[in-house]
């Protein structure tokens, strides 16, 4: 067998930058690392700063903790990396959610592509990209860097089913609202 066949799987994880998406990704990262994966968890700079502040406030640690300090102390290979999301850390993402969402959906992929390009050159090189299902760029970037592409859905299965069958709900009169972010089929 070649030496590369003994290499541990190395996954890059990209959660949508909201708490309800980050927490399931954190759980996935710990589960995969517990099963021998190398994990590079990519967070936006703003989410990383929020987590660091919360860690200092909750545990009175001058240095702050990242999401994985406890897992790393247990020997799990989880690396925490930050990425620019197109806005300053002080930008109010909640107040201007529509602008933020649009930028994340349309422009964030360029920043991700740049980061993944750098990480692919690192040792060990990643071979898997696990991205939130909301991201549309993951398959393109995965193909570009020859990574296995995994789409990870963070919400309950019922929500996925509703999104998937939205056209049927409309056809049967259960949903007649046409909104700005309506999923088209």
UniProtKB/TrEMBL annotation:
Transmembrane segments: none
Keywords assigned: Glycosyltransferase, Transferase
GO-annotated molecular function: glycosyltransferase activity
Keyword presence, Cell membrane: no
Domain of life, per lineage: Eukaryota
Family from the record: Belongs to the UDP-glycosyltransferase family.
Annotated protein name in UniProt: UDP-glycosyltransferase 86A1
Organism: Capsicum annuum (Capsicum pepper)
């Amino acid at each position: 067998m070649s030496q590369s066949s003994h290499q541990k799987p190395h996954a890059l994880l990209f959660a949508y930058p909201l708490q309800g998406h980050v927490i399931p990704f954190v759980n996935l990262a710990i589960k995969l690392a517990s099963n021998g994966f190398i994990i590079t968890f990519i967070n936006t700079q703003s989410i990383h700063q929020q987590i660091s502040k919360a860690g200092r406030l909750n545990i009175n640690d001058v240095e702050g903790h990242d999401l994985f300090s406890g897992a790393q102390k247990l020997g799990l290979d989880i690396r925490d990396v930050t990425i620019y999301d197109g806005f300053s850390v002080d930008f109010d993402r909640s107040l201007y959610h529509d602008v933020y969402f649009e930028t994340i959906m349309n422009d964030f992929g360029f920043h991700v592509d740049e980061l993944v390009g750098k990480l692919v050159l690192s040792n060990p090189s990643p071979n898997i990209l696990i991205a939130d299902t909301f991201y549309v760029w993951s398959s393109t970037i995965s193909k570009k860097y020859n990574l296995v592409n995994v789409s990870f859905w963070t919400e309950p299965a019922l929500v996925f089913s509703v999104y998937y069958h939205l056209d049927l709900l409309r056809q049967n009169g259960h949903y007649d609202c046409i909104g700005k972010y309506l999923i088209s089929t």
